[in-house]
Amino acid sequence: MDHSMHDMPDMGDTDEMCSMAMLFTWNYKNTCVISSKWHIKTKFHMFLSCVVIFLSSYFYEYFKFKFNQYKLQKSISSETEESKRKTRQHESFLYGLQVFYSFMLMLVFMTYNGWLMLSMTLGAIFGYYKYSSNSSSLTASLACH
Length: 145
Description:
It is built from three helices and two strands. It has helices spanning 43-76, 81-109, 114-131; strands at 31-32, 39-40. The protein has one domain (26-131). It starts with 30 loop residues before the first strand and ends in a 14-residue tail after the last helix. Helix 1 (43-76) runs antiparallel to helix 2 (81-109). The chain is mainly alpha-helical. Helices cover 56% and strands 3% of the residues. Strands 1-2 form a two-stranded antiparallel sheet. Belongs to the copper transporter (Ctr) (TC 1.A.56) family. SLC31A subfamily. Pfam families: Ctr.
């Protein structure tokens, strides 16, 4: 079958496509984070992405801290059965947000890009240092982050 008459759009410069690393890398060019819309093409883009990822990881620790504070505050307050049910629904919703947040961070880690992984790890370290309680609780951690 002759396909010479079919119009194919110009693929353009393939250097601008997202690369999907299957192995650990320190490359910055053509790294896509979570979607093709977050496309890192320059060192400056990588720097900005590292800052955003650091802050995202840092504030994930803050989110966990505030969620645990909320649960503790609700556990010591006296409530009616109806308000306990609403509190449980609210906690479940917040937990779902926490899981979604952690899975999005996991997807960033799965780029296998060393700069992004380092930024996320440092954000988690600084966030944990700032917001963790003095008690050593392993239950506050989520497996994916």
